[in-house]
Design brief:
Radius of gyration: 22 Å
Helix content: 25-40%
Structural class: alpha/beta
Strand content: 15-25%
Largest sheet: 5 strands, parallel
Distance between the termini: 38 Å
Number of helices: 8
Order of helices and strands: EHEEHEHEEEHEHEHEEHEH
Length: 309
C-alpha cells in the first residue's frame, strides 16, 4: 500500500490545544495511525516523559493522568492512504478546532515497500553475559560461549531491547545457576523471552502468565523455535489454573499499578525463601511498589536502574 505521511507544522503548545481531540479527528477522517512526538526531539531541549494509563481506564484520556502528559511543544504525524484528500481534511479539522489560522502541514509520499522486512531490519541481535538474542530472519555467527535465544516477537512485548527486559535478563543470568535453578513463574510473559531464557539457563519448570491471548500464541511458537518444547515451559491466561502452587523464582515485568495489584497473588505463588524480581517500574515508582511487596511478606531491595526504569 502506498501511503502519505502528514506532519502538522503550526505551533502546538500542549497546554493550549486538545491533542487527544486532534488525534481523534485525524483518525475519524481516515488516518491509519497518529503519533505525537517531542518537537524538540534530538536537541538539547528534548524532554523525557514517562507515563502509564490511569487505573481502570477504558479508553486513553490524558486528562485522567496526573502530571504532564505531552511535551511543551508537540509534533503531530499521521499516515493516510495515498488517495486521501489531506488538504481538505486539514481544512475541516482546522474549522472544527476553530483555529485562528489555517493549519500548515507537510505531506510526503512514502514508497511502497515490504514494511514487515523494514521493521525486522531494525531488530539487532543483543549479547548479554550468558545469553545472545537473535531473530529468525538474521543469519550471522554466534559466539559459541553464549546461549542463543531465537525470538519472533510479533505483536508481543519483549525483544531484549527495552531496559525493563534487559534488567530482567541480567537478573536471570545472575540467579539462575546450576546450583540454584528451580521452578520459575514469569508474570506478564509477553513474547516468552524471559521464560525461554530461564529454561535455557537451567530452570527445570517455567510457567508464564499473560493477559494477551495473541501474546500467548506467539510465546508458544518461540518455545518451539528454541528447542524448549519438552513441556517444561507452559503459558497461561490469568483465568487459567497454574498446576504448580509454588515457585522458587518469580519475575514480573509489567507496570507499577498492576504489579501493586498483583502483590498478594505473586506472594501466594512464590515459595518461602524464594527470589523475586520486579520490572516495568519507573525509578520514582519503586518505593510504592516495594512497599506493596514488603506488606505481602517479601524483603525488598533495589537492584539496578537503567534509562529511568
Amino acid at each position: 500500500m502506498v501511503l502519505q505521511s502528514l506532519t502538522l507544522l503550526f505551533p502546538l503548545e500542549s497546554s493550549e490545544v486538545n491533542l487527544d481531540l486532534i488525534g481523534e479527528l485525524l483518525l475519524n477522517y481516515g488516518a491509519l495511525s497518529v503519533s505525537f512526538e517531542d518537537a524538540e526531539k534530538g536537541t538539547d531541549s528534548e524532554q523525557p516523559l514517562f507515563r502509564e494509563p490511569p487505573p481502570r481506564a477504558i479508553e486513553w484520556d490524558s486528562s485522567q493522568v496526573d502530571g504532564q502528559v505531552f511535551w511543551n511543544s508537540v509534533s503531530v504525524k499521521a499516515l493516510f492512504p495515498s488517495e486521501a484528500g489531506v488538504e481538505a481534511i486539514m481544512l475541516a479539522i482546522g474549522s472544527e478546532l476553530e483555529l485562528p489560522i489555517e493549519p500548515r502541514f507537510i505531506v510526503e509520499s512514502l514508497k511502497d515497500e515490504d514494511w514487515v522486512k523494514k521493521v525486522q531490519s531494525t531488530f539487532k541481535p543483543i549479547a548479554f553475559k550468558k545469553i545472545y538474542i537473535t531473530f529468525p530472519w538474521r543469519i550471522e555467527p554466534i559466539d559459541p560461549s553464549l546461549i542463543p535465544v531465537i525470538l519472533e516477537p510479533g505483536s508481543a512485548f519483549g525483544t531484549g531491547e527495552h531496559p525493563t527486559t534487559r534488567l530482567c535478563i541480567r537478573w536471570l543470568e545472575e540467579v539462575v545457576t546450576e546450583h540454584s535453578a528451580g521452578k520459575l513463574l514469569d508474570y506478564g510473559s509477553g513474547s516468552g523471552i524471559l521464560s525461554i531464557i530461564a529454561r535455557k539457563l537451567g530452570c527445570t519448570e517455567v510457567a508464564g502468565v499473560e493477559i494477551d491471548r495473541d501474546a500467548v500464541k506467539i510465546a508458544k511458537k518461540n518455545v518451539d523455535a528454541n528447542d524448549t518444547s519438552d513441556g517444561s515451559v507452559q503459558f497461561y491466561l490469568p483465568s487459567e489454573p497454574i498446576p504448580d502452587a509454588y515457585y522458587t523464582l518469580t519475575v514480573a515485568n509489567i507496570l507499577a499499578l498492576p504489579l501493586i495489584q498483583l502483590a498478594p497473588t505473586i506472594a501466594l505463588k512464590t515459595t518461602a525463601g524464594g527470589r523475586l524480581a520486579l520490572s516495568g517500574v519507573l525509578a520514582r515508582q519503586a518505593l510504592e511498589v516495594s512497599r506493596a511487596y514488603t506488606e505481602a511478606g517479601f524483603e525488598m531491595h533495589q537492584a539496578w536502574q537503567e534509562g529511568g526504569w
